[in-house]
Write a structure and sequence with these properties.
heterodimer; A: 475 residues; alpha/beta; Rossmann fold; 3 domains; 6-stranded parallel sheet; 25 helices; globular; B: Rossmann fold; disordered C terminus; binds iron/sulfur cluster
């Protein structure tokens, strides 16, 4: 997927005036946000659990090499074939080769953001495979030729009506008069269509929420069960996971899962939590004949040694975007690449460069709501600021803005001159704005005054009045 | 009088960090702050060596400038017992971010830490440090309170202003929905991303209007300018003031972005 992040401003503007998108987004506060709030209230130790979760992830990252080796050893012992991929290109090649070797025609997929990150579907399709997304949300957007607008609710930008219309257009083999009013009816219809694909699939690809070092297992958590069918009905199961996903023990995983579901959807636990360890054994009733794991770096090792290290704690719950007022205003597609919201504002520059991705860490008021809800306590605003620093140091800050900053700084560093000029500015603007108390147009703040007035100064500065009245002298 | 000498023995000496917006746009907030700090039993002085907290540079990635301004501020307040700012955003900058700016430089970092330990946001200072429970002013009216982000999430300011408001006979607090959600100001954000900023303040103003209050209070002038500018543009009959103005009962200036003639609200 070609990053559209440089067009963030224009995309955001379009998003703001898209009534269907706005209507779809308006459900967030009463949906995922409210659900998380009540889940948190039901678990008194939730805040303590966040600290534990953070520590678990920090520990795993601290000894990442060790746990990855342990994972590989144990997974291999269970019959897995473990592949290491440094780049997205490497991972795509490995996966394509496995599919070719399996003589595959149809490839089913469970929901996986990492596969979006490396644009896997496009690549596999170009090589002649039929790729079928089996998560309902992913299925919906795949048919619309769209990308996910949210990391756990990929079709959250659509209204139910839009989905219904799509299904009627797409599933022409079903009776035209059928009723599709409830979400459950849409799910049932998608299921019936997908069932056939599950049966025909040769290869099933899933992501992994976590990898477990002590057992060599991968785990996916879902609510639809589609991931289970994807990985157990196909002859070959491929797990694609980034290297930061490994956790030491089963115990650690369950700790983090308690946070994941609550933070993501407000559930105590997801409907399904599926552990996979190697291919089908002779005594197993079902499962794939071959089980491959592709461990992808794609920049993670570099992040590990950088000031952005903490972002690797992310468990992709989506809480930061659900609570982000910017995401709530413009939705996920405006961000222009795979990861939207605060996590996207930190990950995107790391993956596509700060020059292309620079808008995202800038388009934040640093309101701090993301950090306040992040189950892993990732200091997202601080990391966004680090990107702004990198941008400034590398000279990518827009020239006009840089110039304005420089002028302001020149004054701010000279208190006497600053106070003198502030008096002048306050006097002039105060006189111009007196009476009305505000400006409906200001040439140097046209972005502001297009939609709101700018309050007029009272006319004299505080420093000036203080010097005149000498209220600092004790009475 | 030079800073650092206690004017009246036993009374802590507070340096007021005016903030650039209060200095330029609305000095009456600064004077209300002085009144309240004095009422809490402190002496106040205002060093002239201060300008801005440096956030425009810091949040734009210009660390070098931010450090210079930080050092200038730290030195300007040398010798004060406390540094108090009528803004959660600026106080958060002084308190939480100045030390981070000097990471790696042991001497300056410890100077910044010592400084940061003296810094408080105005309302938090009155309640948490000075133990104020009542401000001794009156006001009649239905108000709503917007929780500015830095004050709320960096400094834990939530109950303090509400407690002081509750101590004023005649104040009826009508909470708006989602009082804790950002108003969309964000300093340079409002200029760099005006469309998104406008969408955010639009939602905020709808919550304000739905609260039924006729006066919005907050602890940060930046947010207030944003909300006031939007409310008047949309012709909503809701006024905006810094919470210190009401707490100090210094209401002779018109509300923010409000015409001159409509003076006086509430009762003294
Ligand atoms: S950054 Fe935190 S809140 Fe956002 S997706 Fe990752 S874990 Fe969840």
């Amino acid at each position: 997927m070609n990053p559209e992040t440089p067009a963030f401003k224009a995309n955001a503007r379009a998003a703001l005036s898209d009534p269907q998108l706005q209507s779809a987004l308006s459900g967030l506060p009463t949906g995922l946000v409210a659900q998380r709030t009540s889940a948190r209230a039901r678990l008194p130790e939730f805040e303590a659990l966040r600290d534990i979760g953070r520590d678990v992830r920090n520990h795993a990252l601290e000894y990442l090499d060790l746990y990855l080796e342990t994972y590989e050893r144990n997974a291999t012992a269970a019959g897995a074939v473990v592949h290491w991929a440094e780049t997205g290109q490497d991972a795509r090649e490995i996966i394509a080769r496995i599919c070719q070797d399996a003589g595959a025609r149809i490839v089913t997929k469970g929901k996986s953001m990492i596969s979006e990150e490396i644009a896997l579907n496009v690549d596999l399709e170009a090589r002649g495979f039929e790729v079928v997304e089996t998560d309902l949300g992913e299925y919906i957007i795949q048919n619309r030729l769209e990308t996910p607008s949210h990391i756990i609710a990929p079709a959250i930008h659509l209204t139910q009506q839009q989905v219904e219309d799509d299904f009627r257009k797409l599933h022409t083999h079903l009776p035209a008069g059928r009723i599709l009013e409830e979400p459950a009816q849409l799910v049932a219809e998608a299921r019936s269509v997908l069932r056939e694909k599950f049966m025909l699939a040769d290869v099933g690809i899933t992501g992994a929420n976590f990898l477990i070092a002590e057992t060599g297992s991968s785990i996916i958590v879902t609510n639809e069960g589609n991931g289970d069918l994807t990985q157990s009905l196909a002859r070959v199961h491929i797990v694609l996971a980034s290297i930061d996903k490994v956790l030491p023990t089963l115990e650690d995983v369950t700790t983090v899962l308690r946070l994941l579901a609550r933070s993501a959807t407000g559930q105590e636990f997801t409907t399904y939590a599926t552990f996979s360890t190697g291919p089908r054994r002779p005594e197993d009733p079902d499962g794939p004949d071959a089980y491959h794991v592709v461990l992808l770096d794609n920049g993670r090792a570099e992040l590990l040694g950088s000031e952005f290290r903490e972002v690797l704690r992310c468990i992709r719950c989506g809480a930061c975007m659900n609570h982000c007022p910017v995401y709530n205003a413009v939705g996920g597609h405006a961000y222009g690449w795979v990861y939207p919201g605060p996590i996207g504002a930190v990950m995107t520059p790391a993956l596509i460069g700060v020059k292309a991705g620079g808008h995202l860490p800038n388009a934040s008021t640093f309101c701090g709501r993301c950090e306040a809800v992040c189950p892993m306590k990732i200091p997202l605003p601080k990391l966004m600021r680090h990107w702004r620093e990198a941008e400034f140091e590398q000279g990518h800050t827009p020239t006009r803005y840089r110039y304005g900053l420089k002028t302001w700084a020149w004054f701010a560093k000279r208190p006497r001159t600053y106070h003198f000029c502030a008096r002048f500015a306050a006097a002039v603007l105060g006189a111009l704005g007196s009476g009305a108390g505000r400006f409906s147009r200001l040439p140097f703040a046209s972005g502001w005054t297009r939609d709101r007035d700018f309050p007029a100064p009272q006319g004299r500065t505080f420093q000036q009045l203080w010097a005149e009245t000498r209220r600092g002298v004790p009475r | 009088m030079s800073p650092g000498q206690s004017a009246r023995p036993g009374r802590p000496r507070v340096g007021l960090f005016v903030t650039c917006l209060v200095d330029l746009i609305r000095p009456s907030v600064g004077f209300a702050a002085v009144t309240l700090i004095e009422r809490s039993g402190c002496d106040v002085d205002v060093p002239t060596g201060q300008t801005c907290c440096g956030q425009p540079a810091y949040n734009s990635g210009d660390q070098a400038t931010a450090r210079e301004i930080a050092l200038q501020t730290i030195r300007a307040f040398d010798g004060f017992d406390y540094v108090v700012a009528p803004s959660g955003s600026c106080a958060g900058m002084l308190r939480s971010h100045y030390p981070a700016l000097f990471k790696g430089d042991a001497v300056l970092e410890s100077e910044a830490r010592a400084f940061a330990a003296k810094v408080y946001e105005l309302i938090s200072f009155l309640v948490d440090v000075r133990g104020m429970t009542s401000v001794g002013s009156r006001f009649a009216g239905r108000v709503t309170y917007h929780d500015s982000c830095s004050g709320l999430r960096e400094l834990g300011i939530k109950d303090q202003p509400r407690r002081l408001l509750a101590s004023m006979p005649g104040v009826e607090l009508s909470e708006m929905a989602e009082a804790e959600i950002c108003c969309g100001f964000g300093g340079t954000f409002a200029i760099k991303y005006p469309d998104i900023s406008n969408a955010m303040v639009d939602k905020k103003c709808a919550s304000i209007a739905a609260s039924g209050a006729d006066l919005v209070l907050a602890g940060d002038l930046g947010c207030l300018m944003n909300m006031a500018g939007k409310l008047v543009r949309d012709g909503r009959p809701v006024r905006c003031r810094h919470v210190a103005e009401v707490l100090a009962d210094e209401l002779s200036d018109p509300p923010i972005a409000w015409p001159d003639k409509a003076v006086g609200e509430g009762s003294a």
